[in-house]
Amino acid sequence: MDFLLAPPIAFVLYIPLVLLIVGLGRVLAGASRPTAMKTSVYGSGEASPTFPAAPGYRPFFLIAFFFAVVHLGMLVLGIGSLPTPAAAYIVGLLLALAALILG
């Protein structure tokens, strides 16, 4: 029975199973009746903005660099032991984070 767990065989077996579940869902859903409300664009109950929202990538890169420094710093500290040079590394890490936070 372990051969059923092989990816190609599992893929071939799961496709009919998924199609069966989709067909059952369509039967249970019933017939659709299109209305103006169903075909309109959903705006979360608010009026659509009249200007395009394009803030740029600067906030994204600031957050991305912050998480990169935190994750890579913790990875380096987690792999090694905690001797005296690690304290200097932690201070450098905190200075880099402060520079990122303060801009």
Please explain how this structure is put together:
- This protein is an all-alpha fold and 103 residues long.
- 66% of the residues lie in helices and 0% in strands.
- The chain has a domain at 56-103.
- The protein contains 4 helices and no strands.
- Helix 3 (58-79) packs antiparallel against helix 4.
Based on the model shown, name its key terms.
mainly alpha, 4 helices, 66% helix, flat
Number of strands: 0
What is the share of helical residues? 55-70%
Mean model confidence by pLDDT: 81
| Biggest sheet overview | none
In quaternary terms, these chains amount to single chain
SS field, number of helical segments:
4
Global shape:
flat
In what range is the share of β-strand residues?
Answer: under 5%
Distance between the termini: 58 Å
Q: Give the SSE order as H and E letters.
A: HHHH
Gyration radius over CA: 27 Å
Structural class: mainly alpha
Query: Stretches where pLDDT falls below 50 for ≥5 residues?
Result: none
Could you give a short description of this structure?
The protein is an all-alpha fold.
Write the layout of secondary structure elements.
Elements: H1 7-29, H2 36-39, H3 58-79, H4 84-102
Helix pairs in contact: 3-4
